[in-house]
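Hi U.,

Before I forget, here's the chain from the pilot set. I'm dumping it here mostly so it's searchable later in email.
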Amino acid sequence: MIRILKIPGPSAPARKARLERVAAWMGTRGWRLTDYADEARSAMFERPPDATRLGLLDATRWLPGPGALRPAQWVTTLRADPRLFVVPGVVLALLVGLGLMLFGPRSFNVAELRREAAARNWYVVTANQLNVRDGPDSRRQQVGVLYKGQRVLVEGDVNSEWVRISIPARGYVAKAFLDPAPVQAEEQ
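Structure:
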């Protein structure tokens, strides 16, 4: 088994020192340095066929092989070996399938959805222009503007003058400029 590693460094002595550290680390796992090209900044390590098998979580198992990438792109990162994406890909597919089973498409009753929406706190803006503020006070910073006839969802009363809204913007508006939204007729 052969593995190619890129040995980065600003100068030849720095790369040589890094190569010695990498060779010592790889040596503890049964790999030996067989070739080093300073011009390409890459080193080739070989593991004899009679060496013990690599465990699934062994870091050297996922290093790129000689044919994995072009020599200019040899890297030591896990992205270099496409085998790494098999297990996460299967896990992701299982999670997506489980999510679809639990939270997948459901049939919706339009009349029921409208009744539910009517039960929520929908209001209509009565002022020509209504400022949305970041707090329940007219001196607080303006974070948006609502216009006459626009529907808003009120999350709750803050005090007798202000309400907190969440749709179409998050913030606070003066309660005096809102009227309850009329319930729309159900479709037949």
